[in-house]
Amino acid sequence: MQPSEAPIQRYDWPGALVAVASALLALYVLRESAGFSLFGSVFPRAVAFAMLALAAALLVRTAIRKVPASAIRSLTRANWRTAGLIAVVACWMLLVRFAGFYPASVFGFLAAGALARHTPWTLRELGIHALVSVVTVSAFYAFFAYGLSVRF
Amino acid sequence: MLDFVLSALTPLNLFLAIVSVVAGVVIGAIPGLTATMAIAVLTPFTFTMAPEAALITLAGIYMGAIYGGCFAAILVNTPGTPSSIATTFDGFPMAKRGQGQLAVNIATLASVFGGVFSVIVLLLLSPPLARVALAFGPPEYFWLAVLGLALVASLSEGQLLKGLLGACLGLLVAFVGSAVIGGDMRFTFDQPALVGGVNVVVALIGLFCIPVVLDLITRRDHHLHVPEEPASAREELGAAVGILASQKVNLVRSASIGTLVGALPAAGGAIGSLLAYSEARRNARNPEDYGKGEPGGIVASEAANNGTVGGGFIPTLVLGIPGTPPDAIILGALMVHGVRIGPNLFAEHGDIVYTFIFGLLIATILMLPVGLLVGRYAFRLIANIQKTALIPGILLMTILGTYAIHASFADVLMMLSLGFVAWVLTKAGFAIAPIVLGVVLGPIAEQGFVQSWLIGNAAGNIPAVFFGRPISIGIIVLIVLGLLWPVYLSFKKRKPNTSRSVSNAAL
User: DSSP class of residue B218?
Assistant: First the structure.
């Protein structure tokens, strides 16, 4: 009988990095809260000390114990589409400033939808997508602007 | 009593109940649009109505919106309201493997049961439960918030440390802005937009929605699995009824927990549903299946969160202390209609109050057909929608929903930033729920902590205030049990191999 293959083990470096970042954040909270009143600082300081303890424990655990490689979801799994979507959302937000909510949202819907497709577009599909974008954004915009009286 | 039932059952009241439940379900299903917002927007329309009709309308919207949160939680992994956070744990995994319709049906049936249960308790046991709520002081609220955080952290299987650290990160987000006691401006970086702090719903949307969207775009496969031979509506309903029948104890326990927690002013549906979820998991024969698509998890969460609706009205109607923000708005509406809240309410305005309670009951029962019908189409729509429309659709709803809260563009930027950070944290193995709970419970925990600390300081014995009160001790025991539970489970799982590094693995 063949022995079952043991899963690959790795150190949880992403977890350790977050632990270090959390510890730094806790130190920042401790430094900033020194300027607050007693009422305003007592709880943030308590939480900051708890964070320091937890971050230290997480670092120790990372150093002494490996975890299955499958448990670590590396950022490298993200691909150019993720970066593209982040860029689209950034442009969407910038456009809101210059062009207004409605046109910016039509652009954002169109561009995010275009990125989401993993197969090539035909001209007809692109046209339908443009139509869907305008109709969907118009419907939601109308619901919020007129139904819920949200001022854009 | 029959008069009140008949007065709630007039054709106009029934019509208003149906319309308001449908409106509530639709609003609750959209991330960003909460029950509070729905009630606040629609309250002015009820001022011209008769008091009974107005209150039935508001009750229908409230019940519908709390229940509607389960749709987004199950189908898009985004809780429509904080009360639905625990529904995402098992609802979304079920939807992903093609059981979305079944998950929605289970949520509907559990919600209706939880809602009806809490309304009956409201009808029969209001005065004694209101007295229990009064026994909760600042230390008890502090420990209750810690219990919520500990429970959700312990649900991060094998990642207790990361869960607790995530909860602390959420608390840090809650510190931004004006301090709940003392009024210090904290961590605002001189930005006016941060003075008011980070809105809970803004954080909820960003932390849950954005990581989902960023992961969805990289995948070629469909968002939800669509079964090749879908079961008929009757078969799906039969299966859901069967599951609920096998979860009787879980159902009653969760509805009771939700009602009791709802009766505690400001505790809210998020704690109620998480507490019920944690208890369901602890008492289940298959606790390892929870979080992977176990129907019992949905039953617990939904029965409890709708249980908080009736429970929340107990201190609202008996003591004039609103249990939740929507209760506060309904309290205001009652006052507009000339109803004076207080211990004599049931004697002085029994006609309006009992009609309102029966209206609440009717609205809850109406959720059943409305939910089953809307649920079937919602699942089909979300399951069959192309990613080219789904991803931008989710983004559009999150951006519009966030903006609508305060008509603030800064909120949208905050939501997106928090979402990006959450996405990075998920890649490092951190769960989102503890972070969100930290944001939700931060103000309750801080207020309870600082007030208890002040009381202890004045009495010259701080530990006695925190650790010496009977209810506090009971909650502390629950916290310890909640934190030790994953260690015990891990111990049980590894016992056949070796006991070395057992507790280490659980952490």
Answer: T
pLDDT digits (tens, 9 = 90+) for B226-263: 666 777 778 888 889 999 999 999 999 999 999 988 88
Could you give phi then psi for residue A11, rounded to 5 degrees? -75, 145
Query: Would the CA dihedral through B163, B165, B171, B176 be positive or negative?
Result: negative
Assess A41–B contact: CB distance below 8 Å, yes or no.
Answer: yes
Eight-state DSSP code of residue B195: T
In this prediction the ipTM stands at 0.89
Question: Residue B405: closest CA among chain A residues belongs to which residue?
Answer: A150
The 8-class DSSP code of residue B371 comes to: H
User: Which residues from chain A sit within 8 angstroms of residue B168, using beta carbons?
Assistant: 22, 26, 47, 50-51, 54
What is the 3-class SS of B441-487, one letter each residue?
A: HHHHHHHHHHHHHHHHHHHCCHHHHHHCCHHHHHHHHHHHHHHHHHH
d(CA B214, CA B317): 44
What would the mean pLDDT of B57-71 be, rounded to a whole number? 84
| Nearest to B432, CA basis, from B442, B446, B444, B420 | B420
Which positions in chain B touch A108 (Cβ < 8 Å)?
Answer: 392, 395-396, 399
Secondary structure class of B273 (helix, strand, coil)? helix
CA distance B347 to B285: 47
Contacts of B397 in chain A (CB under 8 A): 140
Mean predicted lDDT score pLDDT of chain B: 83
Q: Flag whether residue B399 sits within 8 Å of chain A, measured between CB atoms.
A: yes
Q: Do A105 and B400 count as a contact with CB atoms less than 8 A apart?
A: yes
Q: How far is B413 from chain A (nearest CA, A)?
A: 8
The shortest CB-CB distance from B172 to any of A15, A29, A92 is to: A29
Residue B411's CB: how many other CB atoms inside 10 A? Answer: 26
- Whether B284 contacts B251, CB under 8 Å: no
Q: From CA B34, how far away is CA B43, in angstroms rounded?
A: 14
B389 touches chain A (CB under 8 A): yes
In contact, B270 and B435? CB cutoff 8 Å: no
Instruction: Give CA–CA dist B272/B324, Å, rounded.
Output: 12
- Residue matched to tokens 């300027």: A35
**A39/B430 CB distance under 8 A:** no
**DSSP 8-state code for residue A7:** P
pLDDT of B443: 87
